[in-house]
Automatic annotation (TrEMBL):
<dbReference type="Pfam" id="PF04264">
    <property type="entry name" value="YceI"/>
</dbReference>
<dbReference type="InterPro" id="IPR007372">
    <property type="entry name" value="Lipid/polyisoprenoid-bd_YceI"/>
</dbReference>
<comment type="similarity">
    <text>Belongs to the UPF0312 family.</text>
</comment>
<dbReference type="InterPro" id="IPR036761">
    <property type="entry name" value="TTHA0802/YceI-like_sf"/>
</dbReference>
<protein>
    <submittedName>
        <fullName>Polyisoprenoid-binding protein YceI</fullName>
    </submittedName>
</protein>
<feature type="domain" description="Lipid/polyisoprenoid-binding YceI-like">
    <location>
        <begin position="10"/>
        <end position="161"/>
    </location>
</feature>
Length: 163
């Protein structure tokens, strides 16, 4: 992990250079599901003793490579991507982890704790990699208990350029 902190200022997240990947289980924990969500935007503000960030992903971009599953998760039964098109993550805390945050899914906000895995400042560009565990029940997503994993392991990589 790079420990050098980026220069203070505001950095705008580049959706094309940023990713959200997840892993969860299904079939009572016997199978593993991997997938991704598309980052749509975000901002990272760096101060000497504090970092604040907000990022959004498109709920309709949920993708595991299984069309039937992906359609079911995007539907009103789970993410309700039509009524709630954005998933939002907000975090603020010390420049090294863990960083407390809030994840809003389907209009419901719940706390998360982000582990800072890597920070790579390079001039006006900043790449940050974070991980967290999300409890879908905290967002009211309780359909198919047992068949669908309750927890998702998320890895977020944000590439941002100084504004």
């Amino acid at each position: 992990m790079t420990t050098a902190l980026p220069a203070p200022g505001t950095y705008l997240v580049d959706p094309a250079g940023s990713t959200v990947r997840f892993t969860t289980t299904h079939l009572w924990g016997l199978g593993t599901v991997r997938g991704s969500l598309a980052v749509t935007g975000g901002r990272i503000t760096v101060a000497a003793d504090r970092v604040e960030a907000v990022g959004t992903v498109a709920a309709a971009s949920f993708d595991t490579g299984n069309g039937a599953r992906d359609g079911a998760v995007r539907s009103a039964r789970y993410l309700d991507a039509e009524a709630h098109p954005e998933i939002t993550l907000r975090a603020a805390g010390p420049p090294t982890g863990p960083v407390p945050g809030e994840l809003t899914v389907r209009g419901r906000t719940a706390p998360v704790e982000l582990a800072v895995v890597d920070v790579q400042p390079d001039g006006d560009v900043l790449v940050v990699r974070l991980t967290t565990t999300v409890d879908r029940y905290a967002h009211g997503l309780t359909a198919q208990k047992g068949m669908t994993g309750r927890h998702l392991q998320l890895e977020l990589t944000a590439r941002a350029t100084r504004a």
